[in-house]
């Protein structure tokens, strides 16, 4: 097999060919000059296209970096703030749900909302059915934005489990509870959990 000339060798051959064409005349020389000219144009266009592709790739990477950062922030977990832990500690110490709800409403929108008092009365009514508070478990945490997130957890009692959802917001000072809900049905707090209802009719 005849080895293919290298790039440098090809450049030398083209250079020699140009010299020969310049020294000669006639239609053949003109045709060769035309072919060489077209080749140079094609090479310039190829270089320009290659540079354009590199430029587009660079711009694409620059545009995707902020997007990936935003997605990472939204998908990351949010730590369990001290205000949540303090509320459950007060619940366990004083054996009354009202202590926890009083702690959870501090510093956020819940301070001027009657929802914490409503939830406190709700747990007082079902206290005999649930039994005493035992512990809580974090099921999942989701960051919504840089300063907000949702915490899903279960609250364990002697005879049953309740499920809670806390919408958290990070102020300049600390995390606060913006909203909260509780239910004995996990799918009510976590919509991705779906339980098919059984038919009790025979």
Protein described:
The protein folds into 2 domains: 7-74; 82-189, Nuclear Transport Factor 2, Chain: A (Roll). The longest helix is centred in the first third of the chain and has 49 residues, at 27-75. Strands 1-2-3-4 form a 4-stranded antiparallel β-sheet. It contains 7 helices and 4 strands; from the N terminus they run H-H-H-H-H-H-E-E-E-E-H. It has helices spanning 7-23, 27-75, 82-94, 97-104, 115-125, 127-130, 186-189; strands at 133-145, 148-157, 161-170, 175-183. It is α+β, with helices and mostly antiparallel strands and 202 residues long.
Task: Summarize it.
This protein has 202 residues and is α+β, with helices and mostly antiparallel strands.
Number of domains: 2
End-to-end Cα distance, whole Å, is 87 Å
Q: How many distinct helices?
A: 7
Number of extended strands = 4
Order of adjacent strands in the largest pleated sheet:
1-2-3-4
Task: Give average pLDDT, whole number.
Answer: 76
Broad shape = rod-shaped
Order of helices and strands: HHHHHHEEEEH
Strand proportion? 15-25%
Topology-level CATH name of the largest domain? Nuclear Transport Factor 2, Chain: A
- What class, by secondary structure content? alpha+beta
Q: Give me the oligomer status.
A: single chain
Spans of at least 5 consecutive residues whose pLDDT stays below 50 are: 62-75
Radius of gyration: 36 Å
The major beta sheet can be summarized as: 4 strands, antiparallel
């Amino acid at each position: 097999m005849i080895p293919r000339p290298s790039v440098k060798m090809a450049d030398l051959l083209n250079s020699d060919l140009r010299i020969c064409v310049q020294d000669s005349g006639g239609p053949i020389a003109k045709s060769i000059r035309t072919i060489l000219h077209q080749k140079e144009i094609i090479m310039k266009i190829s270089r320009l296209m290659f540079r354009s592709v590199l430029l587009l790739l660079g711009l694409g990477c620059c545009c995707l970096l902020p997007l990936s950062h935003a997605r990472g922030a939204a998908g990351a977990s949010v730590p369990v703030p001290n205000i949540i832990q303090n509320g459950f500690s007060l619940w366990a110490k004083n054996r009354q749900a009202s202590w926890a709800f009083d702690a959870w409403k501090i510093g956020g929108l819940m301070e001027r909302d009657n929802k914490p008092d409503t939830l406190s009365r709700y747990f007082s009514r079902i206290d005999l059915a649930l039994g005493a508070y035992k512990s809580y478990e974090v099921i999942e945490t989701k960051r919504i934005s840089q300063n907000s997130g949702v915490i899903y957890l279960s609250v364990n009692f002697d005879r049953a489990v309740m499920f809670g959802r806390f919408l958290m917001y990070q102020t300049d000072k600390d995390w606060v509870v913006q909203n909260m809900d509780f239910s004995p049905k996990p799918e009510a707090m976590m919509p991705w959990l779906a339980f098919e209802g059984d038919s009790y009719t025979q």
